[in-house]
Amino acid sequence: MSESRIQCSALRSKIMSAEEAARLIQNGANVGMSGFTGSGYPKVLPAALAERITTANAQGERFRVGVWTGASTAPELDGALAAVDGIEMRLPYQSDPACRKRINAGEMEYIDIHLSHVAQFVWSGFLGKLDVAVVEVGGILEDGRLIPSSSIGNNKTWLDQADKVILEVNSWQNSRLEGMHDIYYGTQLPPNRKPIPLVKVSDRIGEPYLRCDPSKIVAIVETHSPDRNTAFSPPDENSRLIAGHILEFFKHEVKKGRLPANLLPLQSGVGNIANAVMAGLNDGPFENLTAYTEVLQDGMLEMLKSGKLTCASATAFSLSSDALGELNANLDFYHDRIILRAQEISNHPEVIRRLGVIAMNGMIEADIYGNVNSTHVMGSQIMNGIGGSGDFARNGYLSIFMTPSQAKGGAISCIVPMVSHVDHTEHDVQVLVTEQGLADLRGLSPRQRAKAVIENCAHPNFKPALRDYYNRALDQSPGKHTPHLLEEVYNWHLSALRGEPM
């Protein structure tokens, strides 16, 4: 790699191999690593650290570290370290199969945190000391400032709080990303907080570079490695139906005067359903849309390309190979239409509330009263984590959760009497959508919600059983405000665990 990516001559003496850098991380260290949904994570240091851990374990030395990130990363990070049982504590979000297996087996501790809370937790010391930051950057300027790469996540906090900093300078990252980022250095802890001066999606309130005390930088590793691309399947029939229900709902809200003609800033979770909604919006009647979200996926890139979306604010990319090719080929076009921010700003409750964001997120299951489980299978097995969905659901102008109405080939209903784990209470859930229909829960009491959810969202195969449960609960429950039969409320889940029909 050319030295042009490391322009600060005083730091070139810190260049070393990943193996040498890994030796600077000690057993028991808390390590803050860059990365958010497969973008901008360190590409070679984690594997070198995993090899060091393997060697230590072979010599009878127990070697584990805490791994803190922005969100999910990639097999080269989570997977490599989990495979050698090298992670003591993982936070705030993960999606790696090896990690998930160890967490659910009780072999790895995992704290699932709202993404907007992480920086505050670290600054306040709630999580303990941050020993080392391992951060991928696109380059280092002459004065030592750092050019962020394809995600920002918690990198600002890692660089500020860590005792030692290891940088991976990745020449694969497009040099034209420089200037796309907006790093805000005005946040403070209570009682010294000030309002975040962001009043529209396109506002830039910070600077395009990350700062780091050069004396803390102990190693620089040069890389040339791609991000993990996320392949998205073409929208299936269920996804198209869900997207159609949401678009009709938006039209209705505009007609009622509850949304402006260009809607409000959009937030969308990751996945095929989310991309189907974006595809529907791209073909729909709404113009001059904006997005204030965590992750920019294929669908939003297409909307920027078509002109339907005028500006998108996020903290990371999560693109397929084709979409990444489109971005790199036309980065001059996208450069001023995309803003990448630190996740403490992209997910900031104050900003989300002020902008009136429309939050659209996926779920595993919802119950008849509108509580949502977005993280656990059958109550105790973590899938991924809450991510930023809670930040947006609690604070958005509209809070929408969506899923197909049934799973496992129709063996399991995604609408149940009571969710087996609660991530989003009925107080934060305004709209539920499945391919069967949409339930607008705003202004409804629990009993009214139950009827709306069953009739609009449940699959026909499960509607009779849900109606029967609700009617018997209404008759037999000692309390009539939120009727439940506690002795059988989880029978559906128990039947599924036993492999019996629900």
From TrEMBL:
Transferase among keywords: yes
InterPro entries in alphabetical order: AcetylCoA_hyd_C, AcetylCoA_hyd_C_sf, ActCoA_hydro, ActCoA_hydro_N, NagB/RpiA_transferase-like, Succinate_CoA_transferase
Record family assignment: Belongs to the acetyl-CoA hydrolase/transferase family.
Protein name: Propionyl-CoA--succinate CoA transferase
Acetyl-CoA hydrolase/transferase N-terminal domain mapped to chain residues: 13-222
Alphabetical list of NCBIfam families matching this protein: YgfH_subfam
Organism the protein comes from: Parazoarcus communis
GO molecular function, one term: acetyl-CoA hydrolase activity
Keyword Transferase set for record: yes
Active site, per annotation: 294 (5-glutamyl coenzyme a thioester intermediate)
Keywords, ordered alphabetically: Transferase
Pfam families: AcetylCoA_hyd_C (PF13336), AcetylCoA_hydro (PF02550)
One BP annotation, GO: acetate metabolic process
Domain Acetyl-CoA hydrolase/transferase C-terminal: 327-469
Binding-site residues, CoA: 364, 384, 388, 408
